[in-house]
Amino acid sequence: MIRSLKGTYDILPDESWRWQALEAQLHDFMSIYGYKEIRTPAFEKTELFSRGVGEETDIVSKEMYTWLDGGKTNLTLKPELTAPVVRAYIQHNLGALSPVTKLYYMDALFRRERPQKGRQRQFHQFGVEALGTPFPEADAEVIAIAYEFMVSLGITNLKLKLNSIGSGQCRDSYKDALKEYLSPHVQELSETSRLRFETNPLRILDTKIEHEIVLLVKAPDILDFLTEEDETHFSEVRELLDGMKIPYVLDKRMVRGLDYYTRTTFEITSSALGSQDALCGGGRYDKLVETLGGKSTPAVGFAAGVERLLIALDEIGKTEEPSKTDIYFVGLGDQARKAGIKLVHDLRKQGYKSNYDLVRRSMKAQMREANKSGARILLILGDQELENNQIQIKDLENSQQMTINLDELKNHLYKLEL
Ligand code: HAM
Fold it and tell me: CB of 123 closer than 6 A to ligand 1?
């Protein structure tokens, strides 16, 4: 038997309705904020990610599904969406259409990570990218979208963590200061952190190892390295969030795992999740468009893990499936069954969610199926009723049952306001 691959999952019918509900809510929500959807291909040139996300990041250095296509071109299944969106923004000159381009997406992504609860090798993200403005208003809007969308889904225990990692130049001085602070302790660091010490020291701040966390308590503070402009930007972002009554905590150790960030970075976590507690992450990336060959264009965005949102909703018990069927038809006898097929066809054309038995089962089995379907209305037709041009209708909400003329069925159903 061929089975699905490690870290990949089928979304089965008893769960797909939750995805549909979330997607429908997302589209409505984003139109309220004036964002338009963008869809990009599943694979891109590998270079887009190595240049965009950064060679030294975990994603690029160890997690990408990459192959040499036709022995010639290096391609990669997309591990994130910011770089592809920026590629499309440059390629189609979207910036020419309006000063700010506000985009959102929901898509499948691929990272070769160690699978665990809330961490898959194929997973889904929804996210937004606002390109074309350097102003803190955009940071605040993007953060507000992330936070309020989760609130609107009903996820509780949210924690919004906020930081600024400054612009490039101050970050370089900070990296030097951090290395200087850590250099007498290099031997105490884990293998990963020792490697990061050489390649990407900022990422050491992300450590989950207890003795490294203790060691970092006295490390230099990135906020002390911000330029005056960076500081003003950050305090304006905070002021705007305060005005919108969006609660946050400052987390000076939150640097994020992708190289393109400048200034604001943020994450939202939920205690409803286990160790993979980040529901979303994002921030400003003022240099990425330029890095990928476009005109200098400041931008900010975030992405949220859809599986993690669904786990968080699960934990708080928000999993009631809406009724799949309004009407279930039960037929007794050959003629009644055939007439029922025609009847259900007409009802469906009128928009009623209607169903009937496709395997010619007994009346008892059909009734059982009807109950399972969650239908409110049961239509029962026997050959005798058919001859009299009648049908039995039972409202399962109040158990009322009556026989009506078949020609009156439409009116009757209309009055029931299904
Ligand atoms: P990221 O932090 O790599 O950022 O991913 C964002 C979110 O995707 C995470 O917070 C998590 O919820 C989810 N996620 C990531 N990896 C996995 C996985 N293996 N399994 C399940 N869920 C996962 C980015 O991808 C940036 N592109 C976000 C961004 C957009 N920044 C600016 N614009």
Answer: yes
